[in-house]
Design goal:
11 helices, 233 residues, MetI-like fold
Length: 233
């Protein structure tokens, strides 16, 4: 109980909401690495997943590679990238480059799998009907399959975003800021209030991202599909 009260007092302190170590600054730093990482991963995984889902080619290889990517710990990626990034950029190599690389690699597999699954979930009869109307493969992909697979794509982005937001705390290990700074500093200083406050902030941000994407994903489901699911139930 005392620990909980200490954590709440730490969060409510006036100095916690101002200055370079304030929550607004740390939150901005956290989002500044999480959002570009997810965006970079989407630029790679969305086209690849769309092509694989449309053609069905190399699907097994892609899924296995994505699974392998999920199995590699982000901390290991940080350790591998760190010495290389320090040589490339003394200014950004210690903090930004390793964290960005690790978070981007973490986000690629769920986006790739979500995009692939979304396209493969499109009714084959709809695709064949589009071909029967004379649409090109590109027109089918962009005009038929992707609109119907938007919910699946959003699901992959949702998983990736939540994972990145929760895992970006590791950036504090390599001198990056963000909300993970509170966790690492809390452990180093043996300050449980700071540690638990950081954990609560990260968890709260991850929950907010999850809820936001859940609403977006629900909105992207075509009205006809929602009605069909209701009738099926």
């Amino acid at each position: 109980m005392d620990t909980l009260a200490a954590m709440l007092a730490w969060l409510a302190a006036a100095e916690r909401w101002q200055g370079a170590d304030g929550i607004p600054v740390r939150l901005a730093e956290h989002l500044a690495i999480a959002l570009p990482s997810v965006l970079a991963a989407a630029l790679v995984a969305l086209p690849a997943g769309a092509w694989i889902g449309h053609t069905g080619r190399h699907a097994t290889v892609a899924i296995n590679v994505a699974g392998l990517g999920r199995a590699i710990p982000s901390y290991a990626v940080l350790a591998i990238v760190l010495p290389i990034s320090l040589r490339l950029s003394p200014e950004w190599g210690l903090s930004v480059i390793p964290t960005f690389t690790a978070m981007t690699l973490l986000a690629i597999p769920p986006i790739l799998v979500g995009t692939y699954a979304g396209l493969r979930g499109v009714d084959p009869e709809v695709v064949e009907a589009a071909r029967g109307l004379g649409l090109t493969e590109r027109q089918i992909l962009l005009g038929v399959e992707l609109p119907l697979a938007l919910a699946g794509l959003a699901g992959g982005l949702r998983t990736a975003s939540v994972q990145v937001v929760a895992t970006a705390t590791l950036g504090a290990v390599v001198a990056y800021g963000g909300l993970g700074r509170y966790i690492i500093d809390g452990i180093a200083r043996n300050e449980d209030d700071r540690l638990l406050g950081g954990v609560l902030l990260v968890a709260g941000l991850a929950i907010l991202v999850e809820l936001a994407f859940a609403l977006v994903q629900r909105a992207l489901v075509p009205r006809g599909l929602r009605a069909a699911r209701v009738r099926a139930r």
